Amino acid sequence: MGRNSTPFLSYQQIKTDTIDLYEDAWGLYHEFEDVIVLLNEVKTVPKKRLTKRLIRRIRQLK
Length: 62
Prior knowledge:
The chain is mainly α. Helix content is about 45%, strand content about 0%.
């Protein structure tokens, strides 16, 4: 009986020269500035009001 195996790859062996990773992963076209617009909308730190509401809801679930 033959055995099938998957060869191991390192990140350096994966060729991404001709692939736009953002476009491929999320469908965002950087030449149309979709990526920049999306990054401007993302808030890395939530507002205090949102944090308090989340804490209140978590405490209600207990």
